[in-house]
Design a protein that fits this description.
Length: 430
């Protein structure tokens, strides 16, 4: 068999899974589950992997994580981890599709929340299930091992619960066999069937901010008898605007407080106010400095208003780093899958993805797959095309992904897996 006939066979098998992949995607989309609550999604995945007769199907990892192990029939030392995240978001589904979610999670901490796959992880899960079908069907020709890694809680577990990629590693999910490459993709509003990559940091470093400002509770008519936290909180928010000027202006950072929680009411000045937010840094080494300065700002500003403040930084996620030598090794594969004219370097983002835990540890690549009716403007940004469904970014209630494009994701997983196992897709140094 020539190489091309091997790829043709993968493509044919991938296309044969298309209807099933779309059906899985609809089922997962209609039954979305928040981070660390992915019970049904995990069971669907595990049942499918077991039906394929894989060598091993590990479940209950970091909550609801699943890892399938497929040992190929040809000798080979390489091990590829193909990763898909499976959790949904506390967002209302306004995608307008017939399989839109109407699910509300009543019990989630801080909830109840509407739940939707507004980040497209339903697509990631379904395409990796399809890739498992294809690769298991051709296992005799695979020169190495494939790990199908279905990861929970990418969007961040409830505060105080462990979860996500980091927890999968803590639990030894990928210790044996140890991957020689990790790979995954994220669906984005880029043109359908296009692959975006970035050499260097593609996604930023992230952490969750929790700042608690404490005063002294008192009746709203006698503020002088207590200590009001609100002016201190206002001053902290204003002060955050100056942090940017204290970090190298060529390294983008952002500090956002998205949620403020107090315990007062219209006639009660509350005892505490809690600020929840996130820090993002394009350059990971800036993170400790931003945290240090924010802590100083919070503590000293609070003091100026006779309050106290504590700052905590939780759920640290490292930046996704695509090493240039891995990008160079991967480009011929990407170009074969979607055509050279549909592979483009994209700009960096301050979004995060905890696939970084896998890619940074084992080496490998994380790319994006376009799934919307868009085209790129002269700056490389997606803009809607006439007559299409428009442009809707991830996490927006109207986010959508085109069903027909999912088969490209199945093909992408299969080509990358085969190329890595057979030694075509690997840095020259390895
Ligand atoms: Zn997301
Ligand atoms: Zn996502």
């Amino acid at each position: 068999m020539t190489d091309q006939s091997i790829y043709d066979a993968f493509d044919e098998a991938a296309r044969a899974t298309a209807d099933q992949v779309i059906a899985w995607r609809h089922q997962i989309h209609q039954n979305p589950e928040l981070s660390n609550r992915e019970e049904q999604t995990s069971a669907l995945i595990a049942d499918h992997l077991r039906s394929l007769g894989l060598d091993e199907v590990r479940t209950g990892i970091a909550g609801h994580g699943v890892v399938g192990v497929l040992r190929g029939g040809q000798s080979g030392e390489r091990v590829i981890a193909l990763r898909a995240d499976i959790d949904a978001l506390p967002v209302t589904d306004e995608s307008g599709v017939s399989f839109a979610s109407t699910v509300v999670d009543e019990d989630y901490p801080g909830g109840p929340f509407p739940v939707a796959h507004a980040c497209g992880h339903d697509c990631h899960a379904a395409t990796l299930m399809g890739a498992a079908t294809v690769l298991a069907g051709r296992r005799a020709g695979l020169p190495g091992t494939v790990l199908f890694v279905f990861q929970p809680a990418e969007e961040g577990p409830p505060v105080g619960e462990p979860g996500g990629a980091q927890q999968m590693l803590v639990e030894g999910a990928l210790d044996d066999p140890r991957p020689t490459m990790a790979f995954g993709f994220h669906v984005t509003p880029y043109p359908k069937g296009s692959i975006g990559y970035r050499a260097g940091n593609q996604f930023g470093a992230s952490c969750l901010i929790k700042i608690v400002v404490t005063g002294m509770q008192v009746h709203g008519s006698t503020p002088w008898m207590g200590v009001d936290t609100m002016p201190a909180v206002g001053a902290i928010l204003t002060g955050i605007g100056q942090l940017y000027r204290q970090i190298n202006g060529f390294d983008p950072i952002t500090v956002s407080i998205g949620h403020i929680e107090d315990v007062g009411r219209f006639n009660i000045i509350g005892e505490t106010t809690t600020l929840w937010g996130t820090i993002r840094c394009a350059v990971e080494s800036d993170m400790p400095e931003v945290q240090r300065r924010l802590t100083t700002l919070a503590e000293h500003t609070a003091q100026a208003y006779n309050c106290t403040a504590t700052a905590e930084y939780l759920q640290d996620v490292p930046a996704v780093h695509n090493a240039p030598e891995w990008v160079e090794a991967g480009l011929p594969t990407f170009e074969r899958v979607v055509g050279a004219d549909r592979v483009a370097q994209t700009s960096a983002t301050l979004g995060y993805d905890d696939v970084s835990e896998f890619v940074n540890k084992y080496g490998g690549l994380y790319v994006t797959l376009g799934v919307q009716d868009t085209t790129l403007d002269e700056n490389g940004n997606p803009v809607p095309i006439d007559g299409g469904r428009g442009l809707a970014f991830n996490h927006n209630p109207r986010f959508y992904a085109d069903d027909e494009t999912l088969v490209e994701g199945v093909r992408l997983h299969c080509h990358v897996a085969y190329d890595h196992l057979s030694g075509i897709l690997t840095p020259a140094s390895q």
